[in-house]
Every structure is written in structure tokens, then in C-alpha cells.
Design a protein that fits this description.
single chain
Amino acid sequence: MPPTHPDRHILARIPPWISHWLGYRPHHPPPEPPYAIYLWSFIGAFCGLSALQAIFGQISYFIDRGVPPILASYGASAVLCYSAIQAPLAQPRALVVGHFISAVSAVCIVKLFSLLPPSKFQSLEWLIGSLSTAIAIVIMQATKTTHPPAGATALLAAVDKDVRDMGWYLLPVILLSSVVMLVTALLFNNVQRRFPVFWVGPAVPPVAEASEALGGGDVDSGEKEDVPRVVGSRSSSMTLGHVAEERDRGEV
């Protein structure tokens, strides 16, 4: 297979034994067999969620501060980060920033409504949860960090009393949880598969120039959007034999 232009990728500048675990491959990897997907999805999800519960459920520093052993939204993140690892919603930027944005929006909304009397706050709990989640969704859309499980993070931070009582301390907990899940995903997903597909944004493939023999050489810059139609109509009328003959004569 052709190389994926390693000189253009920043991860190509570091040793392969490091870049491999960061998701970089000098060549396009072959598709994984189904048994490998099932095996590493199970191992990754089991170990990743176990690591989170070991940290927040066994370390006294977090127990004394009332941190739940795990937030339920990370169970949904496990599906993306260990199973659907090629989905844009599962990439590191969406995982880390999406959860953090949702936590910030929820804590801000809760603090704002906390200025009301307690009885009024309880009666408006439905509004707090809905507003926190809706705002988080819009911010994730605007920042291109949409991560569906992060919507549950915003909702939990607004309506779950144990999570809501953490206040601003929820933010470092969310950040640490996302980093732990990301590290375990990098470890287990890169044994036989590849993760992530991208760190900041997906690579944009180069656009091929239109062939003159297919009617694309005399197309103006303002009419390039019509090239696929011209190419399709011409190529659809050619048989493989005609294409080979014209290629031999230098016409294609």
C-alpha cells in the first residue's frame, strides 16, 4: 500500500515505538478481523472502566471529597472509545473537550440557579438539567467537539445531587476521568488496531486534477463543480477495453 505522506505528519518525526501508540501508521493499516475488534473492545472497556473505579472508588483523597466511584456518562464513552474507535465522535478532542465543556456549562447553570431559595431551586430542577444539557450541546457543536456521552455529564451535574454537590471540584474530576479513558484507549486500541484516527481534525485528501481526455482540461475555475458530471457521463460509456486502448495511445 502507498505511504500516507509521513513527512507531512507531525507524529512521523518521533520514534516509531512512540508514534505507534499515538495512532500513527506510515501505511494504511489493513481492516481488522472481527474477532480482534470484539476482543480488544472487551479488554479495553473492562480495563478502562475498572481503572476509573479503582481511582475514584479506592483512593481516600477522592472518597473524602464525595467523588462518585464513576460517572455513568463514561459508560457510554466506553462504547465509542473502545468499540467505534474510527468514529469522529470517539476521537480525543471530542472525548476530553466535550466532557469538560459539558461539566463547565452545568456547574455554571447550577451556580446561577443556586442564588434562588432552596424550595424554588428544587422546583426548577427540571429546567436546570434541560438548560445545562442544551447549552452544552450548542457549545460542542460550535467548537466541533460533539461527544454524545458528554450530554449525560451535563445532565448528571445538574440533576444528580451527589454530582451536583461537588461544585467546581467536578471539573478536575471530569478532566482526570477523560484522560484516564484516553490513555487506556491508546494502550489497548493500538495493540492490533489504530486509535485515534486524528487528534485535532481529520486530514483533508488532495483533490485530483481533471483529465483533459475526459473533458476536464478546458473547464474554467468557476465551473469545476461540473467536472464530476462530465467525467461520469464519459466514463460510463467506456468499456474497460476502450480505456486500455486509449491509455496505450496516450489519450487517457
